[in-house]
Design brief:
single chain, 493 residues, mainly alpha, 19 helices, 66% helix, 0% strand, globular
């Protein structure tokens, strides 16, 4: 949906407010949630909705931080302020951020900058060459990255050239996947969207997810497929809707518990041992009931905390409730403590290439922020817990930091991405695939890094692949078939 009618925004907000009131939610918290929901709907429309990369990223951010959690609270019939630390302060900080972003979006929501853009394939021959190179290089890069990155707990992964190369090349799998879907839709005139060329990169990504126990990447592949099809005018049918529902149930009740179950068994192994152990677990066909029971018994966080939702121990349902983690960090800093630029500095130094800074830190700001919030257990002081950008800005600079984040940082990020990437192109969709899965969980420093580094990185990859495509001689330089006439525009009115 590219635009939500204001009447629909008001109806959805009214439903949430009434339902949460019936669940016993505090009046002030309830009123703030109502205002936030209206502001989110207006901001979504100002940013262009599903027509622009900024609209989609904002929608994912809003869902992750507050929207999904409030609907889940209603579903489980729990007060929305239950299990939140400093609930009034937390929802006030959220309200200030979203109002600042809405005001800035009204002023700069359509701003585009004269920035360079990635080079796209213009002929079928170029597209085929780029697909093959991306598939092979992306597969090798993923293997190198995983092989060099997995070490037993307590040991530090020694940076190697293979690890750096793998980090750079692994995202080429998304290029191959998007390009395959794009070509299938073009060549079939919008009648088909999948084929063997789509299956190969998707299978490699899913296999990597299985080994690394990163559930979100599998979900990201499905979302990416849907978005590529949407922007290229592919008409979804009933079987696609049914397949989506079936996948959601499979992910929630089977895949997610299995990944959490296997994570505890393979997390302390090198890459080769992890592969062997994963295969063994799959061959043993563990009972789903025992998997779910094990995951629930081992779930939760330190200090007796069990998460935002009291009515379920499902990690997959607890995950889209970032407001809970944010509340712990905001509460820890409610007395006036601020860590200033520490988090931003740590994240920037961690992401500086080792060739530039050989003495770069071995970790980013996540363990530090977790210790400030009091969520990192004593037995695992360096574990990484996701915190949102809003709470990180508050912990660093208080309310002024939250205002600057909403009024300047996010609009600048959106303006850069909106100027560089077009969602009807391959590289625009790849940029979305890389940014969307973690966007709600990025700290302020990571947002700044992604705003600068990611466009440069993707533009460089596009130029490199285009140069490679020019090396190979081709015959019959046929232009790419046009997209279906129903392809959705990404330009703002």
């Amino acid at each position: 949906m590219s635009r939500i009618p204001f009447l629909a925004i008001c109806c959805i907000t009214l439903f949430v407010v009434i339902a949460e009131k019936l669940c016993g939610t505090d009046t002030y918290f309830l009123a703030a949630v109502g205002v936030i929901f209206v502001v989110i709907g207006v901001t979504y429309n100002l940013l262009g909705g599903l027509r622009t990369i900024s609209g989609i990223l904002f929608a994912g951010f809003a869902l992750r931080t507050i929207v999904a959690s409030q609907f889940l609270k209603v579903f489980f019939r729990e007060p929305a302020d239950l299990n939140l630390e400093a609930a009034h302060l937390t929802i006030t900080v959220y309200l200030i951020f979203y109002c600042s972003l809405a005001f800035s979006s009204a002023l700069f929501g359509r701003l585009k900058l004269p920035l360079p853009q990635p080079i796209e394939a213009h002929t079928q021959s170029q597209a085929r060459i780029i697909y093959v190179v991306s598939l092979v290089a992306g597969t090798l890069g993923t293997f190198f990255f995983l092989a060099a990155g997995f070490v037993p707990q307590g040991e530090v992964a020694v940076p190697t050239m293979a690890h750096s190369i793998g980090l750079v090349l692994s995202n080429l799998l998304y290029v191959a996947l998007v390009l395959a879907i794009d070509q299938r839709i073009r060549q079939s005139g919008g009648a088909h969207s999948a084929g063997w060329a789509v299956l190969f990169p998707a299978a490699v990504i899913c296999a990597a997810c299985l080994l690394s126990t990163q559930r979100g990447l599998v979900l990201g592949v499905v979302v990416l497929y849907a978005l590529v099809c949407y922007f290229r005018g592919y008409r979804f049918r009933k079987r696609h809707l049914l397949s989506g529902i079936a996948f959601a149930l499979f992910f929630l009740f089977v895949y997610s518990p299995f990944e959490l179950y296997s994570r505890s068994l393979v997390g302390n192994m090198y890459f080769a041992d992890r592969v062997t152990k994963t295969v063994q677990i799959m061959e043993q066909h563990p009972n789903l009931t025992s998997i779910t029971s094990t995951v629930e018994n081992e779930g939760g966080w330190g200090g007796g905390r069990t998460g935002y939702l009291s009515g379920t121990k499902s990690n997959a349902l607890q995950r889209p409730t970032l407001i809970w983690e944010d509340s712990t960090l905001i509460s820890a800093c409610a007395s006036g403590f601020r860590y200033g630029w520490t988090s931003i500095r740590m994240d920037i130094l961690y992401n500086v290439p080792r060739i530039i800074n050989p003495n770069k830190p071995e970790d980013d700001a996540s363990p530090y922020v977790g210790r400030v919030a009091g969520l990192n257990p004593d037995e695992i002081p360096d574990s990484k817990i996701a915190f949102g950008t809003i709470s990180d800005a508050f912990a660093g600079f208080g309310i002024p930091g939250v205002v600057v984040l909403g009024f300047l940082v996010f609009p600048a990020f959106f303006a850069v991405y909106r100027s560089v990437f077009d969602l009807k192109t391959v590289w625009g969709t790849v940029a979305l695939a890389i940014a969307l899965p973690a966007f709600g969980e990025l700290r302020t420093g990571q947002i700044l890094i992604m705003a600068v580094f990611q466009p440069i990185y993707l533009i460089g990859l596009s130029w490199m692949l285009n140069a490679v495509a020019q090396i190979f001689p081709t015959r019959g330089e046929a232009a790419l078939p046009p997209l279906p006439a129903t392809a959705h525009t990404t330009s703002l009115p």
